[in-house]
Amino acid sequence: MKVILIRARAIDPAVNKVAKTLSENGYDVKLLVWDRQNTLSVKDNEGYTTCKFGFKAPYDKLTVIFHLPIWWIYEFFFLLKDKSNIIHACDLDTLIPAISAKLIKRVPLCYTIYDFYANNLPDGRFQPVRRFIRGLVAGAEKLGIGFTKILFLVDEARYEEVSGARINQLAYIYNSPPDYFDANKTNQLRNAAAELTAFYGGVINRLRGLQFMARAIQDLDGVRLILAGAVHDEAFLDNSVLTSRKIQYLGWLPSYEDVIKETLKADILFRLSDPKIPKTKYESPNKLFEAMMCGKPIIVSDGSSMADIVRNENCGLVVPYGDVGAIKEAILKLKDNPELYQGLGRNGRRAYENRYSWRIMEQRLLDSYSQISDKVSKKTEKHKSRAS
Questions:
Q1: Which CATH number applies to 196-355: 3.40.30.10, 3.30.565.10, 3.40.50.2000, 3.20.20.190?
Q2: Could you report the per-residue pLDDT of 35-69, keeping only the tens digit for each?
Q3: I need a surface site. Which of 24, 197, 234, 335 has the fewest CB within 10 A?
Q4: CATH class of 2-176+357-387
Q5: How far apart are CA 260 and CA 289, in angstroms?
Q6: Half-sphere exposure of residue 89, counting CA atoms within 13 Å on the CB side?
Q7: How far is CA 202 from the centre of its chain?
Q8: Where do you find CATH 3.40.50.2000 in the chain?
């Protein structure tokens, strides 16, 4: 059974996990990605084939809409030539060409929503216009969902975003990491007097609240911040990182495994999201589950699905977005109270093992795919028998 996955981002552990899981379980997998910055190094030992479109374009900026038609044309003709039995699109920026190819080739279409695009537009000036645009984008995505065989969401909270769409089949697959944890090598005990390291690996921009964490640690003794990832905000890097001895920027880490290594070495993780962006309400990002897997406490901002999970699992601390004083207080709680630190990390690890592990998500993915592949196989056999 041949599957093609499409993602309009070159570096994305989430879609790579799906491709690897399918390839390890008997599927012939191809991954088509849009390498917007020509930074992707394709590996030959992943078990699946990666094809990249090297047309330069920005990430996470509205100006990308001027580049989308070029990508869509390329994706459409690529899919027409491809011999896959199943198409699997990811997010709205891959969905329209995938629907067109699905209708022409009469193959099943799966769809994963990592970000519901209508909710990526922040609140601000000209709010009525913004609401109108959100409505158009949301309507287009919900209409497109009706053409898909299976819809994959990364959190039950996300269902509210797609409410009203015609959903044929639904599965929840959290964006959890594979299990890299080694209890013999991971130290969950820490001395309150020891230096505390906070780590963030991901997109470097102000929407992630990095400036507030940078400010919070400036006058805290024995605390430092390590950052890694693609820089989408040069001004932040210049002002907050290059001028501070307490902040270290590692640059772009070449692989997801390198991000996990830094996560395991750190003491705490954090993920802060601006509530002015509507999608924040529904967010449960991979950083949360990476912290759980590694047995590390995490600091998250309030008003999001991730905050609800942190509270329910008692695996970290919740702070108001932008509240530097609250961030300081949370850091000191974790630094000065080894018992609290250890307990939160242990709770997160337990929650990962019992409810959020990639092993559990893998099984959900394979169960969903088996239903499609069985139908495709029966349809193929029926066509062969008619031909004979």
A1: 3.40.50.2000
A2: 988 777 777 678 999 999 999 988 777 788 899 99
A3: 234
A4: alpha beta
A5: 11
A6: 27
A7: 10
A8: 2-176+357-387, 196-355
